Amino acid sequence: YPSEFLVQKITEDNQIPVHLHVSVSLQYVAGLKGSALVEFFHGNIAEVENEELRHLMWSSVLFYKTPNVEVMACVLLSTKAIYFLLDDSFVHADEHQSDFWNKENSECEDSSFHLSCCFVLKLNDLQSVNVGLFDQYFRITGHSADHIVTCLTRDSYNTHTFIQQLMAVLSLLARTPSPEPVDKDFYSEFGSKNTGKMENYELIHSSRVKFIYPNEEEIGDLAFLVAEKMDGLTNLPSLNILLYVLAFQVNHVEGSAQNTSSLQPKTLILTSSDLFLFDEDYISYPLPEFAKEPPKRDKYQLVDGRRIRDLDRVLMGYQTYPQALTFVFDDVQDQDLMQNLTLDHFAE
Q1: Which residues are in the PLEKHM2 PH domain (predicted)?
Q2: Is this structure's pTM higher than 0.85?
Q3: β-pair partners for 289
Q4: Residue 19: exposed, middle, or buried by beta-carbon count in 10 A (0-12, 13-18, 19+)?
């Protein structure tokens, strides 16, 4: 029986982002309020009777085995596991996921019965959590390739809240204490003898789950990569990354009945002189311990880059969150002048 405050908080968080479309089954979940939501969790999702629902979050998720399929999920954190209630489209989007799904039930004709698949990651199987740059996303890693999931929150507040709740829940786990640490000298403590560079900042929780945060070198590596893409036109020391944000590029779909637009996930990077769009691999890096070979694609792949001095005007939509921005450049000869971006959030 959760407290009234917790029930109210979970109800407030139970809202699908307006720009993302989900299946009927997830729309049903998003319509639940208060105690009905808690009863739904215990009746349909929870695996043991005495686990408590502590946090709810809507987020796009990526799985390690299907890095190109981003799917909407309702993420439920309990005192025993993390549950990912997935959109139906995920199951049909990739044949590798057929083992997730009971095909006998997927052809159900009763319109009042909606089936959704749920991926479960037990807290006892959790090994590490990698937080992405500027808290735009985080990756949860278990003991195998099947147990690696990235949540693309595109929102530092949601990332921070989930991490705090996860740490609180992990503190309840009864695990054997870690062995006493061996005294290390300064160099072995703060540097790696193999690579010669500083490791990412790690926080080892009392439950022995690692929380890994990016260090300053990651920004430096990104700045170097951006400078490479600029063909050496800019002096690297003066190159500053002003903004890193996970966004969507809007591709207008012509000829469709609703005249709709499709959203393509992109990483937007703004420097003091240029605006870049990258395709980023959010799931494969850093490499998991069991990985036998590097990923098939680089972490960052340049899609488009324009000079700020060629920016003619910025058109802003009048709708509320998320904000749509159209950047119009005057340096393009044989392409569309309109670069449409729908951002989940943008600095004031």
Answers
A1: 114-178
A2: no
A3: none
A4: middle
Helix (H) or strand (E) run with residue 223 in it: helix 216-229
Task: Decide: 218 and 131 in contact? Cβ < 8 Å.
Answer: no
Q: Which two three-digit tokens encode residue 71?
A: 């799917």
Average pLDDT over the chain, rounded to an integer: 81
Peptide bond into 322 cis (omega under 30): yes
Residue 154 in contact with residue 341, Cβ under 8 Å? no
Counting every residue, how long is the chain? Answer: 348
Residue 258 DSSP one-character state? T
Cα separation, 250 vs 218, whole angstroms: 28
Per-residue DSSP letter, 143: S
Per-residue tokens: 316:
């802003």
Nearest to 115 by CA among 103, 124, 126, 127: 103
Cβ atoms of 79 and 51 within 8 Å: the answer is yes
- The Cα–Cα gap between 284 and 294 comes to 8
Mean pLDDT of 259-282: 87
Domain architecture of the chain: domains with CATH: 4-173 (2.30.29.30), 216-329 (2.30.29)
pLDDT at 16 over 60: yes
